[in-house]
Amino acid sequence: MASILGGITSSHIPAVGNAIAEGKTQEPYWKRFFDGYEPAKAWLDAVKPDVLIVVYNDHGLNFFLDKVPTFALGCADVYENADEGWGLKPVAPFTGDAEFSWHLAESLVEQEFDICTCQEMKVDHGFVNPIRALYGNREEGSGDSWPIKTIPLAVNTVQHPVPSAARCLKLGQALGKAIESYPEDLRVVILGTGGMSHQLQGERAGLINVDFDLECMERIISEPEWMTQFSNAEIMAQAGTEGIETIMWLVMRGALADDAKLIHKHYHVPISNTGAGVLVLENERLSY
Question: Where is the Extradiol ring-cleavage dioxygenase class III enzyme subunit B domain (predicted)?
């Protein structure tokens, strides 16, 4: 049976991709941010997952504002990357697992999540940059391949109305059941991306709420239901309009056991006017 090893959270800031591609990760501006990923990389190397399910929001590369599904699942064997306007060099394509994806889709629909299934899907920086931070760079045309299969799970946090924190937590719980009902032996890690507090436009552009970010991290570890008390408007009032992306961390957390163990926690500001957090949660003590 498939097993969920644990979950990771990561911001997906566009500038991260260029910092990696240009070899700037140990420059003073970037060093502490990237150092925060070292324990996560070590954990991944130890537990050796087969599949990474990446919860992210599309930024116009795959879905534009005229058609934005609330939840969309990649059901392909290959996912191509392209730049959606940040000047990011495309990376090598990602290998999917269509058979596993279709199982997840069928299970989610049975659990009353009417998921959009995508047999062709391009992935942008929201998907790519957290993987680059964890696995390094694989440039397009380099001949290098990614060492893990990936499945994109896109959550709409761009075009309102967007799903609530409570709905994202329930999606994670349904996803966990879907994964664990798969009959093949797969080792799965779920990567929740986005956030933390930031706002890119308007009078509050540049907003970072460190206290709210740190409380969100603590509550997601031990009491994820805490975030479900807030409406989306209340979350954005605290964390900025783009800070709503943090609800995607709840998808990851909902899929894990209630008593998932904290392996690593890191928070850093500012990177590109964003609060950036990393968590590693393990479902149970594993032998590795």
Answer: 8-275
